[in-house]
Amino acid sequence: MRHDIPMAAPGQVIGLLGGSFDPAHDGHVHITREAMRRFGLTHVWWLVSPGNPLKPHPPAPLADRMARARRVMDHPRVTVTAIEARLGTRYTAATLRRLVHLYPRTRFVWLMGADNLVQFDRWQDWRWIMENVPVGILARPGDRIGARTSRAARLYSRFRLPSRASALLGRRPAPSWCFVNVPMVSVSSTMLRDRGDWSGHVTETR
Fold first, then answer.
1. How many CB atoms lie within 10 A of CB 190?
2. Which residues contact 117 (CB under 8 A, 6 or more apart)?
3. Three-class SS string for 97-145?
4. What distance in Å separates the CA atoms of residue 20 and residue 47, rounded to the nearest whole number?
5. Shortest CA distance to 120 belongs to which of 4, 18, 11, 12?
6. How far is Cα 1 from Cα 198, in angstroms, rounded to an integer?
């Protein structure tokens, strides 16, 4: 399995959606398409992580998660990548620092669900992320109020871009963030694992 660094043309606005994708599912696809539409992104990269430092149990093997993600997310402007395995980074801030260095003429937007904004202040160097990369927040079931009253939202409230101007996010200098409500898809990786729909051992054919 290859962990090549993806290509990016100067001037592209690339949304970055990170996670363990254990497994990838229709909810990930849904927020990816909404992010492209709402935040004016030219492309989105799925950053399939080697492992999430905040989770107590390791995910399924990276090769299996990559194979599943590529089948689930079939879109010409979406790249499924294991770049963190290539870079040797585990934390989002470290990954973003490397990407900004590697792609100095590319604009990145960090994407995450509203549930992540609730505990964003627990992330390593989260303030660096807010102050160096625009952040696009997509509402998910049950977390709208908690996200809007979170510590990160309160501390950076004056840098919030109104949802009606969300398409400008990728062209705005950081700090800049935008919260948008999107139609809900109530599915999660935990639900699929608990239901037995994901064994974590998939053979990739391509």
1. 10
2. 137, 143, 147, 150, 152, 153, 179
3. HHHHHHCCCCEEEEEEEHHHHHCHHHCCCHHHHHHHCCEEEECCCCCHH
4. 8
5. 18
6. 21
User: Cβ(110)–Cβ(134) under 8 Å?
Assistant: yes
> Taking the alpha carbons of 87, 90, 93, 96 in that order, is the dihedral positive or negative?
positive
Please give the order of strands across the beta sheet that includes 107-113: 78-81, 43-48, 13-19, 107-113, 135-138, 177-180, 160-161
Contacts (Cβ under 8 Å, ≥6 apart) of 73? 24, 28, 29, 32, 46, 80
At 1-22, the pLDDT tens digits run: 344 688 998 999 999 999 889 8
* CA–CA dist 121, 53 (Å, integer): 14
Residue whose tokens read 């994407």 = 111
Helix axis angle, 26-39 relative to 62-72, nearest 10°?
60
Position 64, amino acid: D
Q: Which of 206, 197, 205, 182 is nearest to 24 (CA)?
A: 197
Parallel/antiparallel/unpaired status of strands 107-113 and 135-138: parallel
Distance CA 73, CA 29 (A): 6
**Per-residue model confidence (pLDDT) at position 174:** 96
At which residue do the structure tokens 């990170």 appear?
A: 18
Lookup: tokens for 14? 């690339």
pLDDT at 57: 74
